[in-house]
Amino acid sequence: MKKIKTSPLLPQDFVVEQISETEANIVAYPFETGYAVSLAHPIRRFLLSSSVGYAPIALKMEGAKHEFDSVRGMLEDISDFIINLKSIRFKLLNDLTESEVNYTFTGPCEIKGSDLNSDDVEVVTPDAFLATLNEDATLNFSLKINQGIGYVPSEDIRDELDDGYIALDAFFTPVKRATYSIENVLVEDNPNFEKVVLNIVTDGQISPLDAFRNALEVMYAQLAVFKSEVSVQAPNSMAERIEDSAELKTLTARIECS
C-alpha cells in the first residue's frame, strides 16, 4: 500500500558535472513521477530562448554599398563575407552592451576570427575563417556588435542604422544545445522516482552554468506575475543545497514574490 502524502517529495541532490569549458551536465534528484519533465522542459525552453549573447548587427565596408557588392582585392564577395562573419562568435568585454569596432587589413593575408580581437571585443571562435586578401588589397570595415537574446532579422535592424551600414541578421543565442534525459532512481523501496540530467552546450560566449543561472532567473521573473495573489518560497533544505554549491554560489533558489 502506498503511503498517504500531503506534499510531494523534495529533491535533495544537486550535482554539476563540468565536462568542458563549454559543456556541463546539471543533475537533480529525486523527483516524484512526472515532476522531472515538468521542470526540465521549461528550463530548456528558457535556455534556448532567453540566454543573453552577442552578435554583429551591422557591417560598414569601404568600397561596398550593399550585401551583393564586391571589394577589389578580396576573394570573397560581400555576401560570402557576411556568411563567414555569422560563424564568428563575439563577446563584449568591460560590461559593454554594444560597441563599434574598426578594422584594417592589408594583403596578402587570410583573416580569421582571432584577428578581430580588440580591447572591447573577444572572439571565442578564433579559428573561424572570414576572408582572403590579395597582395595589393587593403580592407577597411566596421562592425556594430550588440548584446541581446534570441534572433533578430535584419529587417528589424535596418531602420535604426546610419547610412552606409549593411544590416545583418543577428543570432544572439549563446546556447548551442540544451537537452535533458529522465532516469528512474530508487528511493527507499520505490524505483519510480526520477532524476533529471540536463546537458548544456554553449558557444563560449558564456559558460553552461551562467546560461543555467540566467534561465532560472528569467523563469522566476516570469512567475512573478502571480505575486499579487500568492507568495511562494522554496523550502530551506533545497535552497541551502543550491546555495552551498561552489559552482552556483551566487544562484538563489528561492522565488520571492513579496
Give the helix/strand layout:
Layout: E1 13-20, E2 23-31, H1 35-50, E3 52-61, H2 78-86, E4 90-92, E5 98-106, E6 109-112, E7 121-123, E8 129-133, E9 138-149, E10 151-152, H3 155-158, E11 166-167, E12 170-171, E13 175-187, E14 190-202, H4 208-223, H5 236-243
Antiparallel strand pairs: 1-2, 2-14, 3-9, 3-11, 4-7, 5-9, 6-8, 10-12, 13-14
Helix pairs in contact: 1-4
List keywords for this structure.
258 residues; four-stranded antiparallel sheet; 2 domains; Gyrase A, domain 2; disordered C terminus; RNA Polymerase Alpha Subunit, Chain A, domain 2; 21% helix
Can you describe what's shown?
The chain is an alpha+beta fold and about 260 residues long. The chain has 2 domains: about 15-50 and about 175-245, RNA polymerase, RBP11-like subunit (Gyrase A, domain 2); about 55-170, RNA Polymerase Alpha Subunit, Chain A, domain 2, CATH 2.170.120. It contains 5 helices and 14 strands. The protein has helices at about 35-50, 80-85, 155-160, 210-225, 235-245, and strands spanning about 15-20, 25-30, 50-60, 90, 100-105, 110, 120-125, 130-135, 140-150, 150, 165, 170, 175-185, 190-200. The chain has a 4-stranded antiparallel β-sheet with strand order 1-2-14-13. Strands 5-9-3-11 form a 4-stranded antiparallel β-sheet. A two-stranded antiparallel ribbon has the order 4-7. β13 (about 175-185) and β14 form a beta hairpin. α1 packs across α4 (about 210-225). The longest helix has 16 residues, at about 35-50. The two termini are about 40 Å apart. Mean pLDDT is about 90; it is low at about 235-258.
